Amino acid sequence: xxxxxxxxxxxxxxxxxxxxxxxxxxxxxxxxxxxxxxxxxxxxxxxxxxxxxxxxxxxxxxxxxxxxxxxxxxxxxxxxxxxxxxxxxxxxxxxxxxxxxxxxxxxxxxxxxxxxxxxxxxxxxxxxxxxxxxxxxxxxxxxxxxxxxxxxxxxxxxxxxxxxxxxxxxxxxxxxxxxxxxxxxxxxxxxxxxxxxxxxxxxxxxxxxxxxxxxxxxxxxxxxxxxxxxxxxxxxxxxxxxxxxxxxxxxxxxxxxxxxxxxxxxxxxxxxxxxxxxxx
Length: 280
Ligand code: AMP
Known about the structure:
This protein has 280 residues and is of the alpha/beta class. It is built from eleven helices and nine strands.
């Protein structure tokens, strides 16, 4: 496994490789867990080589404290990647990848950027669009893998490649969960014991909402979820949305033939957790 700490060294290393090998790419912010590893496994199964990037992208954080406290565990991560036979790790510095100009470009993603995370995390998807586009230009993968854990991000990246005619196939991967249902996330490591204990409530509520959605109106399910969180002593709901899985537009009424998902963002103390589920 080769660890490249600069853009130039990765480009040099991939120059010959790409002539005769398909490249599967998994962008991450590190503090790797089983969720990340499941994406890497998919990349390895469908490509000749796997490239994993580890970069905590400053321009996608709307909250300075979250950026400062984001877990950075490069040594442990590279050991883990070595164990799972990853081929290339790309872990650049911010100045290197941003060419000493650390700021994001403004993007529009056909309205996908205004919903949910876009509404509550100002500038987040400009940061995501900027870094992913840059990573794609550097790595030039055949296929790139993104988790449904960040479902809105996945849809936005699909839009990014069609908008800019980037010849990369975007593959969405299932959400990997702890045994108690909590969606795996690098931020889980920062939960207090109490908050870790109660955090599976988020997925439990999503599952129950899915069952209710079979028989009840979207409005009723929406009200029910809000009520569950109002009564919860440790978790604070930021949003629950039932949205069209394609457009991500919030719905007030179900229509036949459409796919819907339920999305939650909630605070467990200072830690913001997100999760989502297919409702039909
Ligand atoms: P992150 O390091 O949190 O930016 O995540 C890097 C990639 O891993 C993104 O495409 C995420 O959607 C994906 N990912 C993170 N957590 C999970 C999970 N629990 N299951 C599946 N994919 C995940």
